[in-house]
Amino acid sequence: MDLNEIYTELIMQHNMSKHNKRDMTDHDKCEMGHNPSCGDEISLQIKFDGDVISDLSYNGKGCAISQASASMMIDLIKGKTREEAQILIKTFLKMITRENENEEELMKLQDAMVFQNIKNMPSRVKCAVLAWHTLQLLID
């Protein structure tokens, strides 16, 4: 299986999976994200236990890339502290903009690392980063 097949398979799995796509009734904060260029919309809901992100969910509509990116991000971020989440957000965004190509550092992104080559599809970059920018607003 080549990298493109892994990329496609992971995105489709996360796009179709509903384990992170749900409304959280007891969230602490909620933030809406919108990509006007393609119509992607996301609502992120977060619950904290002190400084730890104890739960995180999303709802919304959009392309497979935006929905899969949100799901992968939630799998990665849940259980992390605000500071750890900030570091992972920065790592992801720097990967997308080619400011960070350090493989060891990027491995910390787990499944979200499949978006490394999205930078070669400029029209899809906003789809991949929508959830990450929305999370940034939630934890700032």
TrEMBL record:
Residues 7-127 form the NIF system FeS cluster assembly NifU N-terminal domain. Transmembrane segments: none annotated. InterPro entries: NIF_FeS_clus_asmbl_NifU_N. Pfam families: NifU_N. SUPFAM superfamilies: SufE/NifU. One of its GO terms (biological process) is iron-sulfur cluster assembly. CDD domains: IscU_like. One of its GO terms (molecular function) is iron-sulfur cluster binding. PANTHER family: IRON-SULFUR CLUSTER ASSEMBLY ENZYME NIFU HOMOLOG (PTHR10093). Belongs to the NifU family. This is SUF system NifU family Fe-S cluster assembly protein. The lineage of its organism: Bacteria, Bacillati, Bacillota, Clostridia, Eubacteriales.
